[in-house]
Fold this protein.
Amino acid sequence: MTIKLGVPSKGRLMEKTFDWFGARGVTLSLTGASREYAGKVEGIEGVELVLLAAGEIPRELDAGRIDFGVTGIDMIREKLALWSDRVTEVAPLGFGHADLVIAVPDFWVDVTTLDDLDAAATAFRATHGHRLRIATKYHRLVRTFLRDAGVSDYQLVDSQGATEGTVKNLTAEAIADITSTGETLTANHLRVLDDGLVLKSQAALFRSRATSDTETHRAFIARLGL
Ligand SMILES: Nc1ncnc2c1ncn2[C@@H]1O[C@H](COP(=O)(O)OP(=O)(O)OP(=O)(O)O)[C@@H](O)[C@H]1O
Ligand SMILES: O=P(O)(O)OC[C@H]1O[C@H](OP(=O)(O)OP(=O)(O)O)[C@H](O)[C@@H]1O
């Protein structure tokens, strides 16, 4: 039985994933034309490489179209409701570290906590007649986090990229996005709330629960030293 291994098709996660497997004697490489999403696996038998956008790997694991996948913990928990019923986190991989945070404009000097944000949201709605807008692509995670924190008078605005620019562009008043070095937040005059950490994320190896846990799966995990 061939194991299908889904890995990010480009960018920061692809390179680090290739390095991680290579350090364990499993060589992943791209094949075919430069824009052809095809790859090969050397150093282990019976494993097929499937190249996907990091954001699509949760869905493919959930459907059982791939047996294992590497993506961010944030992606799995955002894309899959009751994620742990649908995939198994085999192990964090030690790269792709990023925090999902709530950030507000620097000049909101009196808004440093979630309670301050809730008060500001209530005042904003009373003044403007519509709810304070928070731009994000992490709708599930942010809605749950703010509900648990008692923040209510807001609305989420979808943003699939360049989220930090939405405040300057008057699309939103605040954001929830991934940050690693904090450079993009600072460059856009945004500041993380003191209690605004929604999730600490990194890349992890996940196994689909839609396919049966066979000896082949267990041997693959053991071969990787996990
Ligand atoms: N600085 C960072 N910015 C964004 N993502 C990061 C960063 N560092 C690590 N990551 C991880 O990489 C994942 C995003 O990877 P990527 O942007 O390739 O996914 P994607 O959004 O599906 O791709 P695309 O942006 O092309 O649609 C994040 O979910 C996170 O787990
Ligand atoms: O904290 P930092 O080190 O500044 O990194 C965080 C930034 O990196 C990612 O953007 P990316 O470059 O992946 O483009 P994107 O906006 O399309 O996701 C993310 O969306 C943040 O904007």
